[in-house]
Amino acid sequence: MSVSTAELDRARAGALGLIRSELLKIRTTNAWWWFALGMLGWTLIALAFNMWFAYFAFNDPGMLGPEAGGFTSPEYHASNIYTSGQFLGLMFVMLIGILMVTNEFFHQTATATFLTTPRRTVVIMSKLVTAVLIGMAFAVVITAIDLAAGAVFFHTQDLGTMLGEWPVQRAILLNLVAFGVWTIFGVAIGTLITNQLAATITAAVLYLVGTQLAQVAFFVLSAWLDSEAVLHWQVIVPSTASQVMTLGGEGIPGSPEWWVGALVLLGYAVVAGVVGTLITRKRDIS
Amino acid sequence: MSDGQIVISGLSKRYRSVRAVDNLSLTVEPGRVTGFLGPNGAGKTTTLRMLLDLVTPTGGSATISGRRYADLTQPLRHVGAVLEASSAHRGRTGRNHLRVICAAAGFPPRRVDEMLHLVGLTPAGRRKFKGYSLGMRQRLGIAQAMLGDPKVLILDEPANGLDPEGIRWMRDLLTRLAEEGRTVLVSSHLLSEMQMLADDVVIIANGRLVTHGTVSTVVDGIAHPGTVRARTPDAEKLAAALDADATVTPGSDGALLVTGVDAPAVGAAALRAGVELHELVTERPDLERAFLELTSGKAGVR
């Protein structure tokens, strides 16, 4: 039976419809598949490395050198192993967030999108919500793999599963949150830099190299000012903030509390989201 | 304010030093096909994009049925627009492209297959957009615009890339939609096509209104009447027989082009002089000529 005009008259664009539309946009193209494969591959590599690291920390701490103090704590290793894949996983979900926006400009679908929903704030909001859902979905899959592999590993080390410890549970939960937040970053970066190539390359380079460069800069600054306290400010670098959030306080000497990282990350997400929305509202779509 | 009427008043858009659209005012009525014409860079696309709230005007306003596009409660139900042919993700199928829009607008998903059928794209629906010809892309654009069965249709160069059969299909579709009482606003370069299709025309150049009216008023509005073409084996004798008002220039194909007098006067002169006539036609001014005269010297890069 054909769709009647009365049915069309009744149609209303709700928040759910917009989120479904955004999810459809991702499902109906191939990019997410490649990101999923990349994330899976990286998670397996990270798991292997983290388990190897934990194995030596438990069985042969001398290997890690005299300063291995904090690294022998089983809680630290449990948090580390159960959040394996975070480093590149966060970058991948950020790139997905970037593509959610820049694809609209690269393929000129922004016109159709804004004709369907002229209230641009609503469009960006639905992209942000969808981004969080996708980021979390990827995190759930990665965490499931980490939990299966990690539980087996800790059993072989006669440590049970380590899943009863609150710091470990907290790390796992906050890891899920981190994936959501980084996808939000991605959406915001996409609205700031609509050129797809420029946005993805800038974000990936800043993420991969910027973190290490910032670390070096902080060490130089700390030596120059002769102040250890300066090192604590590293938490203002977003990728460091998310590491502090999931692993912070546990095992890394001198690291700020986990909630400091959480607050920093939340602050960036809010600022990025608001700036991105404001810019998109003003932009001429031509 | 009648339903489906487009009212543009004092609309302006400035990009730094360029006035892309300059204090443009016009109305477009429902139930008619209105051709929106202008040389390249005249501001047609910018005007349409301002009408649809995609580009922010620097002055003036544009409304559809008395409201700004962004204030329409169901924008796609009210207005359908085809703005550029290549506006879908290359890796997405045409059908999925429409599903994405249907979901966002809240329309029933089966509307997608109905519209693919309407534009004759059903067999290609599950193929990726990158494999579509320009004509298929235009058809997908029409399907997208018709999803909400809108009262107003706005099309930017819809005939681009269509083959003769496709152009005919488009003409029949747009004529039918206007007959159903909808507003149809079409920008185009194809003047002969517009002459066949449009009831009204709007001509702009340099971002300003040049003329606006029915096709016949615009065409007849050109001051001097048409040229008379005469073919005769004895051209010099005929030229000498014509009265002083006539200007005679030899045409490229050997015929004489006479201006200043009408065809009966040329015929009478030939009879008086006893000159044989093989052809005598008044070349009626058409939309193309009107357009070229009205916009001459106004086109170009600004």
What does this structure look like?
- The complex is a heterodimer of chains A (286) and B (302).
- Chain A is an all-alpha fold and 286 residues long.
- Chain A has one domain.
- Helices cover 76% and strands 0% of the residues of chain A.
- Chain A has helices at residues 5-10, 15-27, 31-59, 74-82, 86-106, 110-116, 120-156, 166-192, 196-225, 229-232, 238-247, 258-282.
- In chain A, helix 3 runs parallel beside helix 7 (120-156).
- Chain A is globular, with a radius of gyration of 21 Å.
- Chain A starts with a helix and ends with a helix.
- With 302 residues, chain B is an alpha/beta fold.
- In chain B, 33% of the residues lie in helices and 25% in strands.
- Chain B has helices at 44-51, 75-78, 94-105, 111-118, 134-146, 164-179, 191-197, 215-220, 235-241, 263-273, 287-295; strands at residues 6-15, 18-28, 33-37, 59-64, 79-82, 152-156, 183-187, 200-205, 208-214, 227-231, 247-250, 256-259, 279-283.
- In chain B, strands 5-6-7-3-8-9 form a six-stranded mixed β-sheet, with helices on both faces.
- In chain B, strand 11 (247-250) and strand 12 (256-259) form a beta hairpin.
- Chain B is elongated and about 75 Å long.
- At the A-B interface, helix 1, helix 2 and helix 6 of A face helix 1, helix 2 and helix 3 of B.
